[in-house]
Amino acid sequence: MSLRLTDVTLTYPDGQSRLTALDRVTFAVPAGALAAVVGPSGSGKSSLLAVAATLIAPDSGTVTVAGADTTGLGRAALTDLRRHTIGIVFQQSNLLPSLTAAEQLRVMAHLDGRGRAGARTRARTRALDLLDAVGLAGQAHRRPHQLSGGQRQRVTIARALMNDPTVLLVDEPTSALDNDRGAAVVDLLTRLTHERGTATVLVTHDRTHLGAVDRIVGVHDGRLREEMVTESQ
Ligand SMILES: Nc1ncnc2c1ncn2[C@@H]1O[C@H](COP(=O)(O)OP(=O)(O)OP(=O)(O)O)[C@@H](O)[C@H]1O
C-alpha cells in the first residue's frame, strides 16, 4: 500500500478536555487508486489529510507513506519525505501571482534541489508535459490572473505531480468551480491517478462528481465507513 493509516486517533485541545477529530481510523490506498473521503463540515476530512500529509502527528496509531513508517521521524526527515513522495492540492490554488503556469511547476523542481543545467532542461520538459496532461498545453505562458478558476486548479494539480509523488492528497478541489468544471476536475484526477499510479485521496463534502472514482469512504465524527469500492480495488 502506498498510503496506510492504522488505528489513527487525533485529538485537539478543547477547553478543559480534548476533542476527538479522528477516532481509531484505519485506511489504506494502493498505487493507482483514487479514494474519495466524503463528509459534512467538521467531520474530520482536513484532519485526515493533514495526518496523511505528515503535517500533524496523530496521538496514537501509525501513518505509513510509500512503505516508510513516519512515526518518530524528525522534522527534517518528514520534510524530505513530503518533498519526494507526497503531492498536495490545496483548496485555494495558492499560485504565485507573478509566475507563468510553467514557472509555477518549475519552482517545485528547484525546491527539490534540481537546479543544475541538465536538470533544469528536464524540469522544463516535465513541466510542459504535465501542463499538456492537464489540458493546458497552450496556456504554459499565462500567469494566474490570465487563467480561469478551473484552469488555475489544473495548474495546481500539475504542480503537485511535478516531483512524481507516490501519494496525492487533494482538498475540496471542486468547491470554487461550477458543476461542469467540478466534474471535469474529478475526472482529470481519476485519469491521472490511473495513468501515473499515484495513491490519491480526495476529500470533499460534495458527492455530486464522484461517479468515476474507485472508492468512496464516508466520514462522520472522525470515524470512517466504507461506502463503495469498485472491483479493480
Ligand atoms: N486546530 C484545531 N483545534 C481544535 N479543534 C479543531 C482544530 N482543527 C479542527 N478542529 C475540530 O476537529 C473537528 C474536525 O475538523 P476538520 O477540520 O478535520 O473537519 P472537516 O471535515 O475538514 O471540516 P470542513 O469541511 O468544515 O473543513 C471539528 O470538530 C473541528 O472543530
From TrEMBL:
Q: Which CDD domains match?
A: ABC_MJ0796_LolCDE_FtsE (cd03255)
- GO CC annotation terms, alphabetical: plasma membrane
Q: Carries keyword ATP-binding?
A: yes
Residues in domain ABC transporter? 3-232
Recall the GO molecular function terms of this protein's record. Answer: ATP binding; ATP hydrolysis activity; transmembrane transporter activity
Pfam families in UniProt? ABC_tran
Per the record, the domain of life is Bacteria
Q: Which Gene3D superfamilies match?
A: P-loop containing nucleotide triphosphate hydrolases (3.40.50.300)
Bilayer-crossing residues are none
Keyword annotations of the record: ATP-binding, Nucleotide-binding, Transport
Protein name, per record: ABC transporter ATP-binding protein
Its taxonomic placement starts with:
Bacteria, Bacillati, Actinomycetota, Actinomycetes, Pseudonocardiales
